[in-house]
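[agent] plan:
  1. take the single chain provided in the ticket
  2. run structure prediction with default settings
  3. attach structure tokens to the ticket
  4. add a short note for the reviewer (M.T.)
[agent] executing step 1
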Amino acid sequence: MSDAAAQQPAEAAAGPVQPEGTYSLAQLKEHNTRESLWMLLHDKVYDITAFMDEHPGGDEVLVEEAGRDATEAFEDVGHSDEARAMLPKMLLGDFYGEKTSKSKKSVSAGGSSTSSGGFPIWVVPVALVAAFLAWRVFLA
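[agent] step 2 finished; step 3 output follows
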């Protein structure tokens, strides 16, 4: 009895226990390959490995979103009612914990060709080249 009492404070110090039938972000991230591909959609975890060959958009888009919260990407595409009806067959369980996924805004601000205001930077050199060519044509 003293052993059980001694274990309870240690378990409480370790943090909340993950409920059975739920999946954490760490578990989700372990399944991000073509051989085992899990995805988080609307706080539910799905195993979409068997569906990869059937996906009309190709398997590359699925692998890109694998192992993380793909809700935004799923909704941005505008999936049909038929696609949504397929999800319950692939459901593993509910998500447990906090989601820490990359936001598309932080990715685009850091590595794409847009300025912080969303204006495409490539427009400036193209406009300069066009202005130079127009100047040459009018002077010739």
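[agent] step 4 note for reviewer: The radius of gyration is 24 Å.
[agent] ticket updated
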